[in-house]
TrEMBL record:
Modified residues (4-aspartylphosphate): D72
UniProt cross-references to SUPFAM superfamilies, sorted A to Z: CheY-like
Phosphoprotein among keywords: yes
Signal peptide positions on this chain: none
PROSITE patterns associated with the record: RESPONSE_REGULATORY (PS50110)
Keywords in alphabetical order: DNA-binding, Phosphoprotein, Transcription, Transcription regulation, Two-component regulatory system
InterPro entries: ActR_PrrA_rreg, Bact_response_regulator, CheY-like_superfamily, Sig_transdc_resp-reg_receiver
Protein known as: ActR/PrrA/RegA family redox response regulator transcription factor
Cytoplasm found in the keyword field: no
Length: 193
């Protein structure tokens, strides 16, 4: 089960697996992403449970606090930090990672104070999330082999805001402080590499 884990980075997971507790709660309101990540983590040996809202996640965390958690910061019905807090109330040794498309220093500090072991910007891939969950205390994750280009990160952010605005070009352009026609040209192009 721990064949994907190497050296010291796998100690936390190896110990959890040895104790028979590799439970992982993934909380995200982006259903396709949630399903892909759940499958990827199951192949890495985790016993995965999922939730799409703060309310659902808090109920699951209180009923059976997981050994590991991956929680999106912004959910349709609230803040992912509430989920981290609910998990910590029941189990102080849970290794939690916060995912967000809205990275900022203040939120990262709050997440770490509540007990998150790492804070990753979306879109993070399964390898990055796995590394963050399994790093030993104080160990830094290795930089990604093929990080997204700045153009791709910008494109991903525009797409996320566009979806949040229910595909309304005018509203998206207003929120991004961008000219509407410029936004239309960006949306018409393929995603950069």
């Amino acid at each position: 089960m721990t064949e994907h884990v190497s050296g010291a980075t796998g100690e936390a997971v190896a110990q959890a697996f040895a104790q028979g507790d590799a439970t992982l709660l993934i909380v995200d309101d982006d259903k396709p992403f949630l399903q892909r990540l759940a499958r990827a983590m199951e192949t890495r040996g985790f016993a995965v449970d999922t939730a799409e809202s703060v309310e659902e996640a808090v109920v699951k965390a209180r009923a059976k606090p997981p050994a590991f958690a991956v929680v999106d910061m912004r959910l349709g019905d609230g803040n992912g930090l509430d989920v981290i807090s609910a998990i910590r109330d029941r189990r102080s040794d849970t290794r939690a990672v916060i995912l967000t498309g809205y990275g900022n220093i203040a939120t990262a500090v709050t997440a770490v104070k509540l007990g998150a072991v790492d804070y990753l910007s979306k879109p993070a891939d399964a390898d990055d999330i796995f590394a963050a969950l399994t790093n030993t205390v104080g160990e830094r994750a290795a930089p990604p082999e093929n990080p997204m280009s700045a153009d791709r990160v910008r494109w991903e952010h525009i797409q996320r805001v566009y979806e949040m605005c229910e595909r309304n070009v005018s509203e998206t352009a207003r929120r991004l402080n961008m000219h509407r026609r410029t936004l239309q040209r960006i949306l018409a192009k393929r995603a950069p590499r």
